[in-house]
Amino acid sequence: MTADPGRLARLRDALAGTLPGVLGIRIDEAGEGTLRASMPVAARVMAPNGYVHAGSLVTLADTACGIGCWLGLPEDGPGFTTLELKSNFIGAARGDELTCRARRVHGGRTTEVWDAEVSDADGRTVALFRCTQLVLAPAAPPPAA
């Protein structure tokens, strides 16, 4: 199942002016419990040593997982927030573009767990990522007078 194109377009617009937008992160595909995002490799995502900064890799993975979680919420859902995240860096990244494939591994009523893999332009895995998202409860209605 692919995410509603209108909702996905609104999400892409919402990235503008935020950290994911500044880094150039794009949402390429979204489905039920999956998402693929990419990020161009440019000076703004680099560390002084000439490789992609670890924070840029984490931002790409966290954005992909977070957007995947957001797309699975009801339209009127209050949202989510990251409870915990972990990254393992297994290679240094260079090249023209990074790709992140994220998938939901647990979709509960109050939490979701997402895994992501970040690959370089040659398809080589450079980072593994896991996060837990807290699904926020709807606000309670005000007490009756």
Q: Which class do the helix and strand fractions yield?
A: alpha+beta
Ranges with pLDDT <50 over ≥5 residues?
none
Number of domains: 1
Span of the ends, CA to CA = 44 Å
Helical amount: 10-25%
The shape is elongated
What is the correct CATH architecture?
Roll
| Largest sheet features | 6 strands, antiparallel
Helix/strand order, N-terminal first? HHEEHEEEE
Multimerization state: single chain
Helices, by number, come to 3
State the CATH class.
Alpha Beta
Number of strands: 6
Radius of gyration computed on alpha carbons: 16 Å
How much of the sequence lies in strands comes to 35-45%
How does this model look, in words?
The protein is α+β, with helices and mostly antiparallel strands. Helices cover 24% and strands 37% of the residues. The chain has 3 helices and 6 strands. It has helices at 5-15, 19-23, 54-72, and strands spanning 26-31, 34-40, 80-89, 97-107, 111-119, 125-135. The chain starts with a helix and ends in a 10-residue tail after the last strand. The model has no long low-confidence stretch (mean pLDDT 90).
